[in-house]
Amino acid sequence: MTIAPAAALPWGEVWGQDAAVETLRAAAADPAALAHAWLITGPPGSGRAPLALAFAAALIAQDAGDEHTMRQVLARTHPDLTALRTEGSIIKIDDARAMATRSYLAPSAGRYRVMVMEDADRMTERTSNVLLKALEEPPERTVWILCAPSDADLLPTIRSRVRVLRLREPEVDQVAQLIVARTGVDAAVAEQAARHAQRHIGMAQRLATDQASRERRDETLRAVLRVRGISDVVEVAAQIVAAATDDAKALTAERDEAERASLLRTVGIADGARIPPAVRSQLTALEDDQKRRATRSLRDGLDRVLTDLQSLFRDVVMLQFRREGDTINLELIDDLRELAAKWPADRTLTVLDHIAETREALEQNVQPTLALESLLVTVVSGRKP
After folding, report:
1. Which structural domain range is residue 246 located in?
2. How far is CA 181 from CA 21, 176, 190, in A?
3. Element at 163 (helix H, strand E)
4. What are the phi and psi torsion angles at 269 (to 5°)?
5. Cα 262 to Cα 258, 267, 271, 273, 287, distances in angstroms
6. Residue 46 near residue 204 (C-beta atoms within 8 A)
7. 327 falls within a domain
8. How wide is the angle at C-alpha 240 spanned by C-alphas 235 and 243, nearest 5°?
């Protein structure tokens, strides 16, 4: 598989999805092959959003040589593109309603008006119902593109109104090749990052380029392997939450400050100057959005920890069934073999089941430390509390 050059507009940022690209190229070129609503599904890191934007650019541009329009769409600045993504836990119903209303406008400059909704799986049932009529009876020159990990993440009424395009998951060596090409990191570091990220391209790139992230992951897994009693459970659960919190802050703090400075510059307030009452409400609204993003970032960080723990105990159960060829955590292979020999397979499967339940509990806003303590008690005892 080859890596497309970045200049190959609009598909240059799409990697490893040749069949999907060909399907969408054909649809953009032939109105008879174009469905009015699409759902692009694939595992995290498979490139759903870049593919959706590339498809939008191909639809809006007047022809294959219209690079200016394509660049506008890819930058999310073209007037005929409406792109919605959320950094909160759910998509707000007001945002979905505004998007549905905008979908009825005729395109102002391009061939089509395109509505891209990332994270469509974060719609509640009530929010999903807002989109139903817009998806069922869109104007002739409006195309919807939804993105989600799986079509099962959306209501059946939504699924029945879209054409589903499923993306493939790249292999570890393919992700490593891409990371080397993008960042220039050592091939061994890229391979380890791709393996630890379980082929999630974005996470693999972060692990490959951020030594602190690699160290936090390694420390967390080794700490869980050392858990022996209740005192360890309390300590390690607190350690995991603290590490996820620090990770979330590292991802959001710089952006938060840049957004605040940008807002103050926009309204003409110098650094250190008194903020007038008329601007305080705008700052408060921005801070509220940033708090929601921080909450989501922490939840995503904890989910990544659970994904790493899942990979750890998945390796153990694979060793118990004498399948060592595709071990994810090769750096811990001696510890994994020791655990595989000491535990029965059903105990490992119990831990894996509890990891999945912990993920669901965190999505329901269960206190993170308590959820992780419960999970680690299962690791220690082999039984769910």
Report:
1. 230-381
2. 21, 9, 10
3. strand 163-166
4. -105, 125
5. 6, 9, 11, 14, 13
6. no
7. yes
8. 120
Cis peptide before 10 (omega within 30 of 0): yes
Residues 6+ apart with CB under 8 A from 24: 51, 54, 55, 58, 165
Distance CA 173, CA 317 (A): 23
CA–CA distances in Å: residue 153 to residues 120, 159, 209, 324: 8, 9, 32, 32
pLDDT per residue as tens digits for the range 64-114: 889 999 999 999 999 999 999 876 678 889 999 999 999 999 999 999 999
Residue that is last in its domain, among 115, 132, 166:
166
Give the number of other CB atoms < 10 A from CB of residue 259.
Answer: 16
Torsional class of 229: left (φ above 0), alpha (ψ -120 to 50), beta (otherwise): beta
On the question of pLDDT at 340 being above 50, the answer is yes
**Over the stretch 22-37, which tens digit does the pLDDT of each residue have?**
999 999 999 888 999 9
**Helical segments of the chain, H only:** 18-29, 48-60, 67-74, 93-102, 125-136, 156-159, 172-183, 187-196, 201-209, 211-226, 230-266, 277-320, 333-342, 345-363, 368-381
Q: Do 176 and 187 meet the contact criterion of CB atoms below 8 Å apart?
A: yes
Above 80 in pLDDT, residue 253?
Answer: no
Q: Is 58 in contact with 92 (CB distance < 8 Å)?
A: no
Q: Are residues 39 and 155 in the same domain?
A: yes
Under the phi-then-psi rule, with left for phi > 0, alpha for psi from -120 to 50, and beta for the rest, what region is 91?
A: beta
- As for how many domains the chain has, the answer is 3
Task: Name residues whose C-beta falls within 8 Å of residue 123's C-beta, 6 or more positions apart in sequence.
Answer: 90, 91, 96, 131, 154
Return the structure tokens found at 223.
Answer: 């700490």
Together in a domain, 109 and 250: no
Sequence-ordered list of residues with C-beta below 8 angstroms from that of 20, at least 6 positions apart, any chain: 14, 40, 51, 165, 167, 168
